[in-house]
Amino acid sequence: MPQLSLKGYDVLRNRNYRLFWIGQWISLIGTWMQSVTQAWLLTKLSGSPLALGALGAAASAPMLVLVLFGGLVSDRADRRAVIMVTQALSLVQALVLAVLTLSGAVQAWHIIALAAVLGAINAFDIPARQAFIVELVGPGHLPNAIALNSTGFNVARVVGPAIGGLLVAAVGEGVCFLLNAFSYVAVLWGLWLIRLAPGAMPSQHSARQQGALIAGVRYARARPELGWILGLVGVVSAVAISYRTFLPDMARTVLGVGAWRYGFLMAAAGFGAGTGGLVLAGQRLGADSYRRLLPVSLVWFALALIAFSLARSYTLSLLALTAVGGGGILYFNASNTLVQLSVDDAYRGRVMSLYTLMHQGTATFGSLALGVIADLYGTPTALCIGAVVCLVAVGVFLSRPAVARSALSLQTRPEVAFPDAE
């Protein structure tokens, strides 16, 4: 058993990473304010859980088309410049949504369409941000940097929804969207202040060759152990992680609570995830620990989601969502870390675009399918079915010992060169 310590937080002594992390954290508070607010506003305008499914699908659908190109751009271009462009475009998207809402002109289709715009931006932003971390901290601190990134994301998920719920009740949805637009200034300023040493960027020669996009896919396909982890992430993301999309309907129609209590439902999941992420970030765990953590945390996540789907008490729902958040953060951190530690720098952006495709792109189909089930049989039934599918998936994974051993024994930083094109 690894000894508990706080050595993992040494990564915050890195000035560049600290600037990046703080800026991202402030921006993410605004992003989560917008996320919960737009779902609440859409529920008010449409009154349909199917519309929430469409919102989730619209946000993730661009991943299916664009994220692999986003990974290629990440391997070819200056990643900091790519992130600055995507964050600036996200600011504009939030500003448009704020203007429409404050003017009283907003309609349900506006919210869904603008979610699709943000999804397209994220298809280029997320692979670049994932790959940029290793440039800031190097492979030695990479697991802790990933855990701290996830912690910032989930602490923001506590603070953002709580602020959003209170602001919606006090001043309306438009102000939340406007504050989110301003929050992007923090991350842009942090990125501007970062100073990378000459030669910090990995070689981009291979990504500029003809057939580089297909070469990235071949790189992942040539390593079936990597494919199994990515596939499992895809299943979980498709059928279960979109539970957040349906929280407004759970709040209004199942639990019978208003905007501010809905915000605390979102915050409960964020609190569990933030706590789990903080504990994980403080440890200097080896790859073996992450391999053991992956299946255990997924079972934890699925069982907690079943408990939430069955709960009819607001207090029990808060407790269940806290457990959902904790299990989810541990599972996705384990998956992300194992993938990142096993990838050559030359292919990092493209492989992380595949991870993003599995993590967010598959939610397109899952959100729509769960939306249909929720419309026909109720949101609790849809969430329970998604959790059961996760249990079946991890059961299949573990019931095939050869597959599990292969997928959970990824070698770190392979040294064998992989040809780019035929």
Question: How would you describe this protein?
Answer:
With 422 residues, the protein is mainly α. It has one domain (7-192, 209-407): MFS general substrate transporter like domains (Growth Hormone, Chain: A, Up-down Bundle), CATH 1.20.1250.20. It contains 16 helices and no strands. It has helices at 15-46, 49-76, 79-102, 108-137, 142-171, 173-193, 212-221, 224-239, 247-254, 259-281, 287-310, 314-341, 348-361, 363-377, 379-399, 401-407. Helix 3 (79-102) runs antiparallel to helix 4 (108-137), helix 11 (287-310) packs antiparallel against helix 12 (314-341) and helix 14 crosses helix 15. It is globular, with a radius of gyration of 20 Å. Mean pLDDT is 80; it is low at 412-422.
Strand-helix topology:
Elements: H1 15-46, H2 49-76, H3 79-102, H4 108-137, H5 142-171, H6 173-193, H7 212-221, H8 224-239, H9 247-254, H10 259-281, H11 287-310, H12 314-341, H13 348-361, H14 363-377, H15 379-399, H16 401-407
Portion of residues within helices: over 70%
Q: Count the DSSP helices.
A: 16
How many strands in all?
Answer: 0
| Largest sheet: number of strands, sense, barrel closure | none
Number of domains: 1
Gross CATH architecture: Up-down Bundle
Low-confidence stretches: 412-422
Give a nutshell description of this structure.
The chain is an all-alpha fold and 422 residues long. It is built from 16 helices and no strands.
Task: List the keywords.
422 residues; Growth Hormone, Chain: A; 16 helices; mainly alpha; globular
